[in-house]
């Protein structure tokens, strides 16, 4: 029997909205694909290398995070492809798309290939590089998008930097249409956001911090929706954070603009009040917004105006956070907390379990044009086995990510991945605490 | 009545009765500065560190004099002499200072929240001497003290604060202190420097100087920073002065017995005319005198407790 031999997953509830299934089903995985999806007990006498007892669990197509920062090459002290994908699989993600703001920037096929080689060595989650939109993320000249596409990028983005020049954005949208890849938009008007450290509102005034108004995001979203309409290009709005952005995207979709959008768990869970007494772990860009913005995001996730949940996993070293708030780095880690935070939306009846799978797996796969998003026979054997009831505490020492910059440290979470399977291989397994060691990697 | 604060990071979280307690305590310290021998042994053997990351003459001198008149040993560390020049972070500086066992650390810093960072890293009391655009609680306390001395009360007074409210730590601390003690506060300035959001703090917002100071018992004028004109908050100092500069003509809108405060240093002829700054209703120099007494009171209330007491209390807090 080979190491990657057949696996039977038995006793679970399969939630596969792309196949219109939400029912007890057993899965047989073999040779990297889903071999069969059958009624419970069907594989009882099938010879397999491994049987996974999934009683009480959900079987869902592997979660796909279309917005992470793996920091390699260049910032290995924050995260590497290996540690970032370890965090991903521990959080139930079978695939991640990584942004280009590495050093060197991923604006060439060579860097794209380097990232993919690192991912192949790690053998954990699938990694889909996102190429830079402009050379060096400088917002001046288009990067060699065609070369990078041939090497494996799935989208382009200057994420981290807004594309200030509307002419460049227009050309990017037009040019990318040739390759069928979306332009991922970090929407931020540089003049309105300049020097800001948090959401502009009562809390920024109270704390004496320079604010980033909601309009800084909405002005750029407006512009880019018009450019998507003008060019017919595919626009994906990264980390939508405001009520206004939701309204703009909703209206654009209604008139047929080719736009998709994502929201992060921190934006639909927290508000700017989480900055409290200058907590650097509550600093990110876009910033945590007001309660009405959070509510609008939740509504948009419910009705589909926002297509996907993405983490914007942004590891930073403690030394970059343990400083004056306005000097602290923007960004938080998210891969290991996204699953339970998004399951709260199910618990609070914002999302049905099927919608939760749509936002975390089906839509990201569609937006990126990658494998996954379903577990029908023949599909890639990327499976997340979720125990939706298990309670656990977010503990910095137990996070797989090299960085621990999370505002959720100390939170009690409900629900976690207990098995993460990529291409038919178990790459993460959560062992019950009673069994001694809490977790193990294969 | 007592003062239960472990640090003084701002007035936002200090209850009204504790603010009054500081003011009452300060009153008993005024007399020391009027003696021939201006020194009492209250803080003998205690060490107060003044950590100033931002230029300051008035506040730093005031804290130093306050500590010395209480017989504390004072160490001044300024931005140019500190390890910040060598790239040391504030958190590391804090840990090093902590290792030298000071009894109080006074910090002035250009970043909002820097005193909070310091307070999380040390066990000695931290006194905020101004952090970014956040708070400057000792300035507000001395303003409250000065108003109370002159008017006999704070409750019920109409107080207008005029100028660059958005960037002002003095405005924020005064807003909390004044409203807690029952004053009615109006903020006055151009919309670029005074967002309407300030109304949510329980104060009135005015963009017209005369309307804003109409019937005021107290007008507090803030210093306007010259660099704000470069950032398009207003077109020029001249235009700012014409719209918001406090001169005698504008002051006619206030009560006849109005008093004028300014945290200093003043820009004569810009936010305030010389005739107002030097006029009979001006309390600007009384503010400076009272500043010493207020800071003596705070050092006494915070640093006089032994370090062991403070550490024990901290441990109890952790345990609870």
Question: If you had to describe this structure to a student in words, what would you say it looks like?
Answer:
The complex is a heterodimer of chains A (442) and B (320). Chain A is built from twelve helices and 21 strands. Chain A has 442 residues and is an alpha/beta fold. Chain A folds into two domains: 7-59 and 380-441, Urease, subunit C, domain 1, CATH 2.30.40; 62-368, TIM Barrel (Alpha-Beta Barrel), CATH 3.20.20. In chain A, the strands form four sheets. An eight-stranded parallel sheet of chain A has the order 8-9-10-11-12-15-16-17. In chain A, helix 7 runs parallel beside helix 8. The two termini of chain A are 17 Å apart. With 320 residues, chain B is of the alpha/beta class. Chain B has two domains: 16-135 and 290-307, Aspartate/ornithine carbamoyltransferase (Rossmann fold); 137-287, Aspartate/ornithine carbamoyltransferase (Rossmann fold, 3-Layer(aba) Sandwich), CATH 3.40.50. Chain B has helices at 16-30, 58-69, 90-99, 114-121, 137-151, 169-180, 209-213, 227-230, 237-244, 248-251, 274-277, 284-303, 307-319; strands at residues 47-52, 73-78, 104-109, 126-131, 158-162, 184-188, 204-206, 218-221, 259-261. In chain B, strands 7-6-5-8-9 form a five-stranded parallel sheet. A four-stranded parallel sheet of chain B has the order 2-1-3-4, sandwiched between helices. In chain B, helix 5 crosses helix 12. The two termini of chain B are 23 Å apart. Classes of the chains: A alpha/beta (442), B alpha/beta (320). The interface between A and B is medium-sized, with 17 and 24 residues.
